[in-house]
Amino acid sequence: MSLFEVRGLTKAFGGIKAVTDVSFDLAQGELLALIGPNGAGKTTCFNMMGGWLRPDRGSVRLGGQELIGLKPRRIWRLGVGRTFQITATFVSMTLAENVQMALISHHRRSFDILSRAARLYLDEAEALLERAGLAGQGDRAVSELAYGDLKRLELAVALAHRPRLLMMDEPTAGMAPGERVALMALAAGIVEREGVSVLFTEHDMDVVFAHAHRILVLNRGEIIAEGSGFYGGAHILHGVSLSLGPAEVVALMGRNGAGKSTTMKSVMGLVRPRRGTVRYAGQAVTGWPPFRVCRLGLGYVPEDRRMFSELSVAENLEVGRRPPRPDAPAWDEAKLFALFPNLGERRNHPAGRLSGGEQQMLTIARTLMGNPSAVLLDEPSEGIAPVIVEQMARVIVELKREGLAVLISEQNLHFARAVADRAYIIETGTIRWQGSFAELDSAPEVSQAYLAV
What we know:
Elements: E1 2-13, E2 16-27, E3 31-35, H1 42-49, E4 57-62, E5 65-66, H2 72-77, E6 80-83, H3 95-106, H4 122-131, H5 147-159, E7 165-169, H6 177-194, E8 197-201, H7 205-211, E9 214-219, E10 222-227, E11 249-253, H8 260-268, E12 279-280, E13 283-284, H9 290-295, E14 298-301, H10 313-319, H11 333-339, H12 341-345, H13 356-368, E15 374-378, H14 386-401, E16 405-410, H15 413-419, E17 422-427, E18 430-436, H16 437-441, H17 444-450
Helix pairs in contact: 3-4, 3-5, 4-5, 10-13
């Protein structure tokens, strides 16, 4: 029997149909992924199902009870928890105090919030933190948490009212690979041990295929496919051709799911293309293992910030060290700390304790320690604060000045325009447009068709 039933969910904003006739069931103890590119309608669906947005028509039932028309707080009381794309916590409080606030509300003790809040449900809060992988950290200030720990805290808060259904909107966005695996393993464990149902949206297909029991694919507001994981046989790229010249910055742009990361992985040898040729430094490198491509002088910074979280900043840099190349700028620790002052200030800090933006800086710096002549940067502005995005733009401009060629995959048009000489736009695995940003600015219909969300 289904715990959660959605029928004919539909929403339009003016003349734009955001969601059209979405229907699905979710069983008790099931982990269901809702995937699709940016602008597909995933968050709009979540907002309608959680009471934040009223649909034009449709039905949403939890345990047979209709939720349409109920306020979010009432839906929460009925057993629907939610985590958000952007973490929502009290940064001036400790971890335990954040969870205590949720427990006070759950136990209907809000009238005690001023007089006795610090003593209420402290043991229960510590137990929830332990379930979320934050054992013994209740006294830590939220303001000092790394991004992955913030996501864990938000999960502990969501579990405080003992939900029957947990809705997680892009739970691993902006997280490092180890953090993604750990967070989703926690969610999967909760499903298995406690029978909680989980509905989550996600762009990381490795996360989806590793944990989801079932997958729904949403595109342009409609469910277009349903089933279990099927990555190996999928046809992702279709005749993609692009070039990168010396000391040039080129942007590969498109929505999530368009094929940007797969293109980069194919170039780097992490994914073997079925057809086509990849040439670098005059050599055909198609089918080469990634380490050989790297030794030829091509650096790669993946979207998911892969690093050694227990090693210090300096130790992570040392891992990436390679001899200088005659055709590439030379990098050492001092030069990198001048480029990334934040890292210099945290030279001896464990990488896992850095902010998301600092971790992004570290992955780029470690790649540069290999002295490449060209670098692939996969979504360098994804999931980091605006002030760090500005720093990242200055870094890429400086890399070009040093003579480095840079290919970035990017969704942020403003960021790409600030750093790149020209752009390719990819959609559903096919290059749809290429040219300068002046040409793109003169063709607004292109941005609207392939980049707007």
